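About this split. The held-out portion is used to measure sequence recovery: a designer receives only the structure tokens and must propose an amino acid at every position. Recovery is the fraction of positions where the proposal matches the reference. Here is one held-out target exactly as it appears in the evaluation file.
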């Protein structure tokens, strides 16, 4: 179980969405709002570094063996094998590190990881689902990124249908058809939660 310093109730704000919905853009915006007192939870992964990624900033890069040892030692708040031997998870020490600073934790994680955190900490967690206006729009956004192959985009789009079906399990749904409005909605929902 995660220990909290000074009995201070740290809050957990989870953002989940299909790839290309805009959740990362929204999370970055919220991190810039001082009064929300947020700090980003850095995920651990067993995948290789890409491009200019930095260990301890973008992810905690672990070997497959290290990741599996952490699973065995129950060091994760949540984890998942996204693709074969490709694990992602949230270390309990990461949440403790942020709470020790007296801050609220904000996550940008997949749907199943987000729902696991909500189940473990139902009172302390605000789980927000960011919804694209449509699957077609999602496909357009993923293509515009120009970071992945057509096969990878099709795989993400296929996965998004299952992810969209989980939206009603979240505390709030933000439809990102207008980024300006989505940012405003996210700010309002998070602000109400951290001040409650």
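Reference sequence for scoring:
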């Amino acid at each position: 179980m995660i220990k909290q310093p000074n009995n201070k109730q740290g809050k957990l704000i989870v953002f989940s969405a299909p790839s290309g919905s805009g959740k990362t853009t929204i999370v970055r915006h919220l991190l810039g709002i001082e009064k929300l007192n947020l700090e980003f939870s850095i995920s651990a992964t067993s995948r290789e570094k890409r491009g200019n990624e930095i260990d301890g900033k973008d992810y905690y890069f672990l070997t497959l063996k290290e990741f599996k040892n952490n699973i065995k030692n129950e060091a994760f708040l949540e984890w998942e094998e996204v693709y074969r031997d490709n694990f992602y998870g949230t270390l309990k020490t990461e949440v403790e590190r942020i709470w020790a600073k007296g801050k609220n934790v904000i996550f940008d994680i997949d749907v199943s990881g987000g729902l696991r955190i909500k189940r473990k900490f139902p009172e302390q967690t605000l789980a927000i689902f960011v919804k694209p206006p449509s699957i077609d729009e999602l496909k357009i956004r993923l293509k515009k990124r120009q970071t992945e192959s057509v096969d990878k985009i099709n795989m993400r789009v296929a996965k998004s249908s299952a992810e969209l079906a989980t939206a009603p399990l979240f505390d709030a749904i933000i439809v990102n058809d207008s980024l300006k409005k989505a940012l405003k909605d996210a700010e309002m929902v998070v602000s109400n939660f951290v001040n409650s």
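Annotator remark: The longest strand covers residues 76-83.
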